Amino acid sequence: MNDSPSFAAYLESPYRSLKHSSYFRVYDTLFGPYRGRAITFVEVGILGGGSLFMWRSFFGPQARIIGVDLNPNARKWEKDGFEIFIGSQSDTSFWQDFARKVGPVDILLDDGGHTYAQQIITVESMLDSIRDKGLLVVEDTHTSYLQGYGPEKFSFMRYSQNLIDRINRRSSLVSDSPAERRIWSVQCFESIVAFHINRPESAAPSVVTTNDKPGDDAQDFRHRERRDPRIVTVARPLVPLLRHLPGIRRAGRWLRNRAELRRFRIDRFFR
């Protein structure tokens, strides 16, 4: 990691900081484009204060570095030029007051208590305060697979998967439930989930387009390999009738899909 800017900044910090070794490349990838810019960066959970100095070194003197912690002792870092807010990240009223006082944020990094409630409430409370082209990043998401951070069915990674499902529902071909338009995309790394904010792109309608170039009248072979020749042979005389019955067509697709799942043992990827 000798060529990692974030790791170098981590080593330069004059106070103790704890980070997983796999995080530094992720920091470089996600936060690198913001270096040297006058951004507002918020870190939830500052413990011994070392990470505040790390981020100042990494982003540069133009950056506004803000720390959030439950421990009132963290206010001592204000003397070093950092803004410190004391409060609970699972308290929605705290976040409302924080957003009113701080204004728009470019990057929020959640390295707080890591419980599912804390992580989810932080995301839901601060999404609207992240600037376009900004990031809301939650780290230590491996707690979703550990005991003691909340009920498994409400884990942060399950919450993230739900958001991913709703992002994909922006497609014009899917319309049976509300779509997610606050988040443009979700990027997952080991123990880190990054939410990218781009409201114009998130709001733009997603429709099927064509480049209006000449076609070659190619046949659509997507579903040919899924046809069981035995079924086709038996059912061939009934095709003219069945093709006019939507319910029968849906049942046929369901049976083909089920057979395909069984044939390739897709269930082994969901254990």
Automatic annotation (TrEMBL):
Per the UniProt record, one Pfam family is: Methyltransf_24
Tell me one GO biological process term: methylation
Where does the source fall among the domains of life?
A: Bacteria
**Residues covered by region (Disordered):** 204-226
According to its UniProt entry, this protein's organism is Paragemmobacter kunshanensis
Any one Gene Ontology MF annotation carried by this entry is:
methyltransferase activity
User: Which keywords annotate this record?
Assistant: Methyltransferase, Transferase
> Could you identify this protein by its name?
Class I SAM-dependent methyltransferase
Q: Where is the composition biased (Basic and acidic residues)?
A: 213-226
